[in-house]
Amino acid sequence: MLGLFMVMPVIAISAKEYPDYSAFLVGLAIGGYGLTQALLQIPMGVLSDKIGRKPVIAGGLVIFAIGSIVAATADSLAWVVVGRFLQGAGAIAGAIMALAGDLSRESQRPKVMAIIGISIGFSFYLALLLGPIIASQFGLSGIFLMTGVLACLCIFLVLFVVPNAKNIAPKGDTLPVIDDLKNLFLHPQLIRLNISVLLLHMLITLLFVQIPVFLIDLDWPLATHWHAYSIVLVASVVGLIGLMALAAKHKQGVMQFSVAGLAIVFALLIFGQHSIIYLMLLVSLFFTCFNYLEANFPAMVSNIAPAGKKGSAMGVYASFQFFGAFSGGVLSGSIGQFLGIQWVFGLASILCCIWLLIIRGLNATNRLKRYTLKTNKQTSSLTLQQLSELEGVVDITVVPNEQVMYIKAEQHFDIQQARLVLNLKD
């Protein structure tokens, strides 16, 4: 992920060295990986269930490394775009989550998934700081070459350092199941979150086609861009802490405020960037709102998804997320080239206003817990009735082929009562 992200803060400037430079190709180069990620994320996850996690992960890393080399050796921006599409074809997020699930005990699995999510977020912030430094020293090809080397090191880690799976996690918690996808695509609450993450990543990709250009226009050389990003990141973390404190009592209000904040940022950007302080204030507000939404949407998907369908729900969510990155690059590049960046920012602000209407329909939900229990192939209707009547139970799904039962319940639910009903020992 570090390799995918490091390109974002520099390519709008570094790509001017290519003879076929255009704003449209820059947009494709920034967001192109998102299209292949969106298309292949679910199929690669399903494939890992058939041939094994490590072969899919290692194969995806090989494809990613090849894409990095293609981009590093490219003599035109069009070939950089091809390399980015190839990078995205190494869509291994689902297989990695499944392997992490296989290697962790049920009680520790949520922590493991959270740590992976945090590391992905951290890689984005690290990429904003490292990208300009590396590009100023070694150029855009240096970033891609380093990315290819890191991918090869990751192959070594996966094959020889990461343990082989010993306890296989029920795939309903980690992997998409094809039969579930249609219903989850149409789920009235999940579709709002899927559209939300699509718009969120569309906006950040759209913004990064333009921010490096603004900084150059304000006489900030590429080598110093990391100074601006470091200040922005610190300011946005402080803002995020404030939003999280407010969200403890006003979650829906803070979510709407965050989307409105994004709309305001793009509306003000229509009038240009008057000074570095003005630009950094707007970008800091953007990242404050972005960080809050990015951190909360996955938890909401997990909370809303039916019992035993979390893996499928997260697979659909990830596909929308990556397609949003692709859409943002295409829209920003094409509209910016043919109509001007004011139209790009105007469209972004209008989309945020529409987004506000979409999230108004999101139902506030309490924080729910999920449990996975081993069971016999045949679970009687009487047993299911008894389980559903236990205090705090919200949803139950039984998968006979996997000999597993998924329970979604409120915080005060006592799992020991469920085990007694199933005649299971703790």
UniProtKB/TrEMBL annotation:
Pfam families (UniProt xref): MFS_1 (PF07690)
Superkingdom of this protein's organism: Bacteria
Organism: Paraglaciecola arctica BSs20135
PROSITE patterns: MFS, SUGAR_TRANSPORT_1
Gene3D superfamilies, alphabetized: 3.30.70.100, MFS general substrate transporter like domains
Domain Major facilitator superfamily (MFS) profile residues, every copy: 1-367
Organism phylogeny: Bacteria, Pseudomonadati, Pseudomonadota, Gammaproteobacteria, Alteromonadales
Record carries keyword Protein biosynthesis: no
Chain segments annotated as transmembrane: 25-44, 56-74, 80-100, 112-134, 140-162, 191-214, 226-246, 253-270, 276-293, 314-335, 341-362
UniProt entry keywords in alphabetical sequence: Cell membrane, Membrane, Transmembrane, Transmembrane helix, Transport
InterPro entries noted in UniProt: MFS, MFS_dom, MFS_trans_sf, MFS_Transporters, Sugar_transporter_CS
Transport listed as a keyword: yes
Protein name as annotated: Inner membrane transport protein yajR
